[in-house]
Amino acid sequence: MPEAHQIELLSPARDADIGIEAVNHGADAVYIGGPGFGARADAGNAVRDIARLAAHAHRFNARIFVTLNTILRDDELEDARRLAWQLYEAGADALIVQDMGLLELDLPPIQLHASTQTDIRTPEKARFLQDAGLSQIVPARELDLHQIAAIRDVLDPARCSIEFFIHGALCVAYSGQCYISHAHTGRSANRGDCSQACRLPYQVLDAQGRFVAHDAHVLSMKDNNQSLNLRPLIDAGVRSFKIEGRYKDMGYVKNITAHYRRLFDEVLDERPELARASAGRTTFTFSPDPLQNFNREFTDYFVNGRQQDIGAFDTPKNPGQPIGFVTQVAADHFDLRTDDPALTLANGDGLCYWDQQKELVGAQANRVEALGDGAWRVFPKDAMAALHDLRKGTTVHRNRSMDWVRTLEKKSADRRIGVWLNLSDTADGLALTATDEEGNTASAQVQLAWQAPKDEATGEAKLRDSLAKLGETIFAPIDIALAWSRPWFVPASVANALRRSAIEALEGARAAAWQRLPRATPVQPPTPYPEDSLTYLANVFNHKARDFYARHGVKVIDAAYESQEEEGEVSLMITKHCVRFSLSLCPKQAKGVIGVKGTVKAEPLQLINGKEKLTLRFDCKPCEMHVVGRAKRSVLQQGAREAAAQALRFYRAKPGVGQDG
User: Fold this and answer.
1) Structural domain tally of the chain?
2) What pLDDT was estimated at residue 597?
3) Structural domain of residue 57, as residue ranges?
4) What pLDDT, on a 0 to 100 scale, did the predictor assign at position 303?
5) Based on the domain organization, do 180 and 250 belong to the same domain?
């Protein structure tokens, strides 16, 4: 966790190489999946790769957080415990966890962070997790600035910091509160294997069976972008700013990390009472631009209160940016004119357009020809016959620029730690002392007989040039002081060797000064949980998790939905997003109608996709929506077979009823 005055930029990494580039592009911390038990099942990494990433990050005092944030079966707990120790020994700085059963195990002295999957919406829940020994917590993305500030007010900044998602894909449900994937496919989002039912198109029917929307992606959100809200979020108490994207590619992580690094550097320059959470400054060979990466258009979601236009209802794909319009369609190509004559196209560019049914159609450019004055001829990869509804006047978007892709395939950032170099004479030669911007210092000496330079000014200039050659290191010179008693002639070979030795010693001093993040000590006696009973929504899937909550005063504990004890209709998703509101059907939206409030009811709606049917129910007091359904029989049967095969034991009675679980 960052200190109270520090601002941490936290970037995602699908693999160690991407994580290294995240650090190089300015991340103060990186989160990455280990070889198992991460909430992105297909983004795992070997422990040795995490060790390689940690070694690189620690050179800049950047941190590595590893996700161990699925809910666990009893038979998985020991493997998870062993993995936690392996990650600790590999140099990981913190584990991001969801399952409270882990806190009942013999874990290494590594810092624990509460995953967004722990569903933190209230100050009471946040305070409880702090008191239970979590050092960093991720409140729900749906909270507004006032709600975040309320959480800040109950936390001790010396014990627990607030982390918040500022960019990337948005899950429509409160994290940890979606079971549609498990109910329909047996693939659990809480176990890292979401089928993403929220991105599907649905028919929306009202209580009388009338169509409200046709083939609309009404559960698909736009992408999160808090670029304009960083200062208010800092004031609300956020200290770790998290970019979503452990499935994203290298170009995305480079670009988005660089984008926010620049924004935060501006804030830190304005506010000297704040500091970055790691060492060094980063420069870039490109101008970061979030619009260049995959996005479903952007929203700042609920940070500034409920907004009308937060959904990507037309498509969950990347529509890109409009660049021009079609001027001619031929048998094997089409011509277009760009809105900006300076814009250039390249072979392989991703182009697309909306057809007459409002479906996004891709038209990747196999080859392009410049016709001059902003006009281009595009020979698409697919046959022209497949590009239905492409006609003169159609607006063309670009959702991938090959020039941009190639830019980010090259070295695109340089991160350096400032260092002061001081050269002085000794009784038998010279000493070079290097001091970095964090106060680490190291020296190197060389025996050398004094010799006067032939030309004092020329000799000094050449010596400074030799000492300043730090290009192959992580350092950049801030100042070079020649603190000798008399001018020296120093051969370039001597100066270079002295510089290399001093810098190598400084790297060693930095490594020796490295300190692990401290593990928080839980409050004793254990702080009572804010509620005395838990439903399946608490995601308790093993006996150790049950023991944890019982030890914290919970009297009734239901099993997680994945245990399949809930066979009837239940809430399969709880979300702050309201379909009625987004479709302008909310009773509270009616204006100019006397007495409408309280007379127009928020009646259920139904979502239909093929054979899948879900019911939307609206809880207007907290302004939330429940997506209601039941598990498929085939899923229940498969779950029973898996439980039998794995000898999975889970309690069927409440604690204290007489069964030992």
Assistant:
1) 4
2) 46
3) 6-170+222-278+286-292
4) 98
5) no
